[in-house]
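Slide 14.
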Amino acid sequence: MTTSPQPLIPSHDRDVLYPGARRSAAAATATLSPFRRIDAQGTPKVCLRGISLSYQNGNGSRLLALDHIELKVQPGEFVCIVGPSGCGKSTLLHLIAGLHRPTSGEVLVDDNRVDTPGTDRILIFQELGLFPWLTVAQNVEFGMKMKGTAKAERRDYIHQLSGGMRQRVALARALATEPDVLLMDEPFAALDAQTRDLLHDELERVWAETGRTIIFVTHNVREAVRLGDRVVLFTFRPGRIKQEFTVNLPRPRQLEDVTVARSAREILDELREEIDKSLEQEYQVPS
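Slide 15: predicted structure.
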């Protein structure tokens, strides 16, 4: 006896994630090259000017977490940030979201200085931040309520959902507020490989159909190449931009693609030195 497979997303929620047609694959050369900074026409969607952040640690000394970050992200660009643990990747997303302020420098969105959170920038955490006592619809509508938008009737409960479905709800909730910028902090790190691959496809589709600007933090270099137009490599603390790479691979991509693996290896070779530094510091290994 066989049964028909159940849809991954309830039909009444699909329109939130799939508002349009599929994006056709780009006919690009399957190579990865160091990013050459070019003055793009128009105003960047996100501009980081001289961003530095230091804070006082437990012994009273100052710790420099980020040091003079200069980065421009164009409208509709998908930028992935990779680096060793403790290099300030997640902290940078918090600064863009307006949850913290830099010690020096400024964050600009559409050439406007960011000082506080706003619905034009939505941060999606690995932990999701869903309310288990609310329905799927109520979670999706939460951001719209904050904007004064009327609610609609939906079904299902968060505590009955798998990790992958919860990520879909978190993404739907973020998109419901129609943000210009999605800030994603390792959103798929805790998922199994099959669910992660499905969500890669869904996220790429949403990005292509909505034209949102996405800044995506990950420890997985191959994931960064799978998703990004550009990969920004951070040094170990203090976090600085060590190198940038444009990803000239046709879409859609898969993690198993030989070209994705080869490109990821090039970035990982540059990243390994920074990982060694972080391990030396963590375990006090003599260099």
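Speaker note: The first strand starts at residue 31 and ends at 34.
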